[in-house]
Amino acid sequence: MEIIVQNEQGMILELKDHLLKAFPNAEKVFIRTQFPDVLIHFKDGKTLGYEIEYRLSNFFQHGHHRDKRKCHGIIFWLDDRIEKEISSERLKNYELICIGKEESCDLSWIDEYLDLDKEKVSEWDQVYSVSDVMKRLDVTRQTVYKWLVTVIPRNESFRLPSGHIRIQGSAVKKLANKEI
C-alpha cells in the first residue's frame, strides 16, 4: 500500500520515523492541534516546539512568525521558499526539517554550486540579471533562485521596481570561487 501525503494531517503518518532519527535523546514527544504542533521534551528538562506545515510558506501565511509562543522550528513537506520568495532572513531563527519525499526537499542542487568552473567568469564590476548568472556560471534558473535565498547575502542582491532581480558582481565572483 502506498500512502500519498497531500496535507498536514497526512504528514503525521511520516512524522514518527523522522522524529526518532532527528531527536534520539528525546524523552517525550507531544503532537497536538495548538501552536506549536509538536513539543519535544528532553531528559535535561529542555523543551523544543515545532510547527507542522504541509508547505513551508504556510508558516508565514498562518501568521506563526508573529506568535509570541516559542517555536524552535518548522517541519514541512514541500519547500516552496523560492516560488513564494521567502528570504533566508525570515527563516534564520527556525530549524527547518523537510520530511517530504518530493524533489523540493532534495538539496543535491548544492552540488551544482560546488562544481562551478572559475574559468567561465571574468569581469565582476557590474550587476547581473538572473539570466546573466545562469549563462556565466552555466547553471539553471532554479539554482540561481535557490542561491538567492540560501547563500547570496541580502546586501549583494536586490529587486528592481520592475520586479527583475539583480545580483552584484561581487556575489557572482564569490559563487564562482566557491567562497559562499
Question: Could you write a compact summary of the structure shown?
Answer:
Helix 5 packs across helix 6 (141-150). The protein has seven helices and eight strands.
Task: Write the topology of this structure.
Layout: H1 8-22, E1 26-31, E2 38-42, E3 47-55, H2 58-61, E4 73-78, H3 88-91, E5 95-98, H4 109-114, E6 127-129, H5 130-137, H6 141-150, E7 157-159, E8 165-168, H7 169-176
Parallel strand pairs: 3-4, 4-5
Antiparallel strand pairs: 1-2, 2-3, 6-8, 7-8
Helix pairs in contact: 5-6
Could you please describe the fold and organization of this structure?
- It is built from 7 helices and 8 strands, in the order αβββαβαβαβααββα.
- It has about 180 residues and is α/β, with parallel strands linked by helices.
- It folds into 2 domains: about 10-105, no CATH class; about 110-175, Multidrug-efflux Transporter Regulator, Chain: A, Domain 2, CATH 1.10.1660.
- It has a 5-stranded mixed beta sheet, with helices on one face. A 3-stranded antiparallel beta sheet has the order 6-8-7.
- Helix 5 crosses helix 6 (about 140-150).
- The radius of gyration is 19 Å and the shape is elongated.
- The N and C termini lie far apart (about 45 Å).
- Mean pLDDT is about 75; it is low at about 100-125.
N-end to C-end Cα span: 43 Å
Tally of strands = 8
Beta-strand share of residues: 15-25%
**Net shape:** elongated
Determine Rg (CA atoms, Å): 19 Å
Mean pLDDT: 77
Largest sheet: 5 strands, mixed
When the domains are counted, the total is: 2
Helix percent reads 25-40%
- Put simply, the count of helices is 7
- Structural class of the helices, strands and pairings? alpha/beta
Regions with little confidence, pLDDT below 50 for 5+ residues = 102-124
Describe the strand arrangement of the main beta sheet, using strand numbers.
1-2-3-4-5
Instruction: Write the element-wise H/E pattern from the N-terminal end onward.
Output: HEEEHEHEHEHHEEH
